[in-house]
Design a protein that fits this description.
mainly alpha
Length: 212
């Protein structure tokens, strides 16, 4: 045991770090654990954390001789990483359900429109309009509503995702007002990455359900 003076405390809002992490001078830690001039762990920071697999493989190949334990941030925070992956899948399911509900709203509005335009449809049919022409009119109405909403949502979401750094000041203000707890503070520092494949799937799903 060693008596140390507490100079300051920190609160990240994450119990995984707040409850078990302290910062001490390197010489103090080496003396406390009897390491001499050695260290028990070396941390390597990379430029792109998302491409950690090749870096981990290169480090493991470079130190193949000594019995070392090499782990990356995904393995060290596997529970948080797994929770984020599950949350992404659940959010996609929730988004799909929201789009389906919006599609049913379009169906109900078009049904009421058809009921209101019954006499006009009869006049068009009397004048020689075919069923396909009437059908195309209402498909165009539904497509205008659905495609307009999908494109507006696409523009809004892409604008927020690409300018999330500029919006962090507003999120910090919301945290000061008490709407967000301290445990969500680390979410403000997460990078915002737009994946074209997922965006294309979401837009295609919205357009497809609207036309359907």
């Amino acid at each position: 045991q060693r008596t140390l003076r507490v100079a300051a405390t920190f609160d990240l809002g994450m119990p995984e770090y707040d409850g078990r992490t302290i910062f001490v001078p390197l010489a103090t830690a080496q003396a406390l654990f009897g390491l001499g001039s050695a260290v028990s762990q070396v941390e390597i920071l990379v430029a792109d954390p998302s491409r950690i697999a090749p870096v981990t493989s290169a480090v493991r190949a470079a130190f193949a001789g000594p019995p070392l334990r090499i782990t990356d941030w995904q393995g060290a925070n596997s529970s948080i990483y797994a929770a984020v992956v599950v949350e992404r899948k659940v959010m996609f399911l929730i988004l799909t359900l929201i789009v389906v509900v919006a599609a049913f709203n379009i169906i109900s509005s078009l049904t009421m429109l058809v009921k209101d335009k019954g006499r006009d449809i009869a006049i068009l049919r009397t004048m020689g309009a075919r069923r396909g022409a009437i059908l195309r009119i209402f498909i165009l109405c539904g497509a205008t509503i659905g495609c307009g909403g999908t494109l507006a949502g696409f523009a809004l979401g892409l604008g927020v995702a690409t300018n999330f750094t500029a919006l962090r000041n507003g999120l910090a203000w919301l945290e000061e007002t008490g709407l967000f707890g301290a445990e969500l503070r680390f979410l403000m520092q997460l990078p915002s990455v737009v994946e074209p494949g997922e965006v294309a799937v979401i837009v295609a799903m919205g357009l497809g359900l609207s036309l359907l």
